[in-house]
Amino acid sequence: MLPKSLGALLVGASGVSAMLRFSCSQLVINRLDPLVQPGANPSGHVHQIVGGNSFDVTMDMSHDLVARSTCTTCTFSENFSNYWTANMYFRARNGTLIRVPQFANQFLEGADGGMTIYYIDPYDGSSVTAFAPGFRMLVGNPFLREDRNTLDQQQSSFRCFDANFGGESGAPGTGTDTRHFPTRPCPGGIRTNLFFPTCWDGVNLDTPDHKSHVAYPVGGTFEMGAPCPASHPVKLPQLFFEIMWDTRPFNNLAEWPEDGSQPFVFSFGDVTGYGQHGDYMFGWRGDALQRAMDARCNVLCPQLQEQSAAAANQCKLPSFVNEDINGPFAALPGDNPISGESPGSGNGGNPSPGPSPGPSPGPSPGPSPPPPSGALADRWEQCGGNGWNGPTHCVAPWTCQRQNDWYSQCL
Question: Which residue positions does the secretion signal occupy (predicted)?
């Protein structure tokens, strides 16, 4: 039986108690991205990675995460999947940058940072099909710097906690949650959430944009029991990430920009938060995830093998990239330019056009692939880079400016 407080948290978090919820401690923090930039060492920006220790510079479709892993940072020891997101940095008034660490989520104390992972069964009691070996996907767009209410942006939210996880208690994206970085000091740190698509085409384990093989329900949300589109008929578990950022050491307003604008920036240079994104590679052993979904498991899942937080914390990888990713330093690792500041703002300018409603707790219809190469990219969007097959010219007055070998951006 779950503790009353934990059961209430689980029901409150997404309105249903049948959700598999567990921690995955930090595996490694590095400038690597084998999904978007396979083979690049280093890749464009710093990620925090959790899960199985077969994570590598290159992880093509032949990479068997289960067979190649000898340990995992996740609670359930049959889960060798990898999950990663961009890191967050604090930019002080004098311009110096320092990495913001993660800390353990509520009721998952003991984990070494990392993130909390959820796999949720349908709310109507129907079944889902677990991800297939080799499956991978991503959600979010790192090139966005404003709220366009895109379908990806509807899956991302930020919560500003009071001390001891206090304050807002509703589902992610509700209440005072925002799609941009909080604009005030958060006494209990900042939580970010990312929901992934829940419908699969049933054929492709991946696509070039890592999105087109998945979609969101039509005419409603996963929580509402809305159907999958005919093009993507297979209903998947609702996967989402929850990351606790320990911004508490950075709440001294004397160190914030003089104009009072927020000081946090993602490792790819985004001061708005609208570019938040996450990557996933499936790696559960055998039918373990399907068993858990069929049993409608929660935090406790006797159908799965479990390890202690101390054991999960022991699973680590050495750094692949010989560079400082912690700071303090004057520029982000990879020299990623910082962008998205409002005109006239100081370091870490407040997002424009300001606060907007957070996402509903579940996803809505899914993203589209990049526009054809003959189209024009808008401000903040990608316009070039190794392997890029989208637009290479920008809408006036913006111009395509090279950021590094892997991407150029309309600025």
Answer: 1-18
| Alpha carbon distance 350, 106 (integer Å) | 29
Contact, 191 vs 241, CB < 8 A?
Answer: no
- Count of beta carbons in the 10 Å neighbourhood of residue 12: 12
Q: What is the mean pLDDT of residues 257-280?
A: 94
Q: What angle do CA 128, 133, 135 make, to 5 degrees?
A: 75
- Residue 35 and residue 131: Cα distance in Å, rounded? 17
CA–CA distances in Å: residue 110 to residues 3, 188, 312: 18, 17, 10
- What global pTM score does this model have? 0.82
Measured in degrees and rounded to the nearest 5, phi and psi for residue 10 equal -65, -40
Q: What is the pLDDT of residue 8?
A: 34
The alpha carbon torsion through 336, 337, 340, 343 (nearest 10 deg) reads: 170
In eight-state DSSP terms, residue 363 is -
Here the tokens at position 155 are 């899956």
For residue 234, how far is the Cα from the chain centroid? 23
What value, to the nearest 5°, has the Cα angle with vertex 28 and ends 304 and 267? 120
Establish how many alpha carbons lie within 13 A of residue 383's alpha carbon, considering only the half-sphere containing its beta carbon: 21
Contact, 97 vs 338, CB < 8 A?
no
Contact 312, 79 (CB under 8 A): no
Is the predicted pLDDT of residue 140 greater than 80, yes or no? yes
Tell me which residue of 335, 242, 264, 317 sits closest to 30, measured CA to CA: 317
Identify which has the larger pLDDT, 407 or 165: 165
Are 74 and 49 within 8 A, CB to CB? no
Number of residues that this document lists for the chain: 411
H or E stretch at 298:
none
Residues 378-405, mean pLDDT to the nearest whole number: 75
Does residue 245 register a pLDDT over 70? yes
Where is pLDDT greater, at 377 or 6?
Answer: 377
Q: Kindly state the tokens that stand for 101.
A: 């660490």
Residue spans of the domains in the chain: they are: 1-369, 372-411
How far is it, in rounded angstroms, from Cα 177 to Cα 161? 10
Of 341, 324, 322, 323, nearest to 95 (Cα)? 341
* 133 compared with 8, residue with greater pLDDT: 133
With tokens 């990898």, the residue in question is: 82
